[in-house]
């Protein structure tokens, strides 16, 4: 049976400011990218999500980002290497402590928002994040954009890399994501999302925003947890995959480690 990981960005609520339905998403996804407090999330809320992930056997990853609470980590920044390495180490370490208290452990790292998009192409910032990850634990898996230069860069540096596709984001013809500033960048129709990701799993291809075909080799699918239809999209995608014999399964066996 074919399998695919389903991941989502969770733990992003901040005090009374509620973001997404983490409990519902944790019933659907197989891996959870947990905010580390820099772009979103507060310790009490993050701990609650980690406990639920542990209870459900969902793999946990550190969703590290720029130090940008106001901009939700989606503003481009140019920190020095010392800053970015330190921020990466700090965020992973914070989540590791909370995860330990929740009875689980951090197994991978997925950068968030503007940092994710920047390091996909920017070799210097990518190297800083890679250095930060290795300084904490070189066995941590890096989740990165399928087809981006960082994939080879991180593997050459000795990290295991899992490539991902985005269920609800539009692609450019070169395999990059369409900017959120442009119309059509986010896909809201659950049926459309499910069918395009089913094709990606079976054929390794998606339709770009200009109508061309884009080849993608991905072992994880991201469903953003902060969109209004996130739970419906995630559930429809999972049901569609299972109906076609594709098993939703984390790339990490959470039973061993």
From TrEMBL:
GO molecular function: 5-oxoprolinase (ATP-hydrolyzing) activity; ATP binding
Any Pfam family: LamB_YcsF
InterPro entries on file: Glyco_hydro/deAcase_b/a-brl (IPR011330), LamB/YcsF/PxpA-like (IPR005501)
Keyword Plastid appears in the UniProt entry: no
EC number of this enzyme: 3.5.2.9
BP GO terms, sorted: carbohydrate metabolic process
Superkingdom of this protein's organism: Bacteria
Record's catalysed reaction(s): 5-oxo-L-proline + ATP + 2 H2O = L-glutamate + ADP + phosphate + H(+)
Keywords, sorted A to Z: ATP-binding, Hydrolase, Nucleotide-binding
Family affiliation: Belongs to the LamB/PxpA family.
Protein task: Catalyzes the cleavage of 5-oxoproline to form L-glutamate coupled to the hydrolysis of ATP to ADP and inorganic phosphate.
Assembly and binders: Forms a complex composed of PxpA, PxpB and PxpC.
The name this protein goes by in its record: 5-oxoprolinase subunit A
Primary gene name: pxpA
């Amino acid at each position: 049976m074919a399998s695919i990981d389903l991941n989502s960005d969770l733990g992003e609520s901040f005090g009374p400011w509620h973001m997404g339905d983490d409990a519902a998403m944790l019933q659907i996804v197989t891996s959870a990218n947990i905010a580390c407090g820099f772009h979103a999330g507060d310790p009490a809320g993050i701990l609650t999500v980690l406990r639920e992930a542990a209870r459900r056997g969902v793999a946990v990853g550190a969703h590290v980002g720029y130090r940008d609470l106001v901009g939700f980590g989606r503003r481009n920044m140019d920190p020095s290497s010392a800053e970015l390495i330190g921020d990466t180490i700090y965020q992973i370490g914070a989540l590791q402590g909370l995860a330990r208290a929740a009875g689980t452990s951090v197994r991978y790292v997925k950068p968030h928002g503007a940092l994710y998009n920047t390091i996909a192409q920017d070799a210097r910032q990518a190297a800083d994040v890679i250095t930060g990850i290795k300084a904490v634990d070189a066995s941590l898996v890096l989740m990165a954009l399928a087809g981006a230069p960082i994939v080879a860069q991180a593997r050459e540096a000795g990290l295991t890399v899992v490539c991902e596709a985005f269920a609800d984001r539009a692609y450019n013809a070169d395999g990059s994501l369409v900017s959120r500033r442009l119309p059509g960048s986010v896909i809201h129709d659950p049926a459309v999302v499910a069918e395009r990701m089913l094709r990606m799993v079976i054929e390794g291809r998606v339709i770009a925003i200009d109508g061309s075909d884009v080849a993608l080799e991905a072992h994880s699918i991201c469903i953003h947890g902060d969109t209004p239809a996130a739970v419906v999209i995630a559930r429809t995608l999972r049901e569609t995959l299972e109906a076609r014999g594709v098993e939703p399964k984390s790339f990490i066996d959470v039973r061993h480690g």
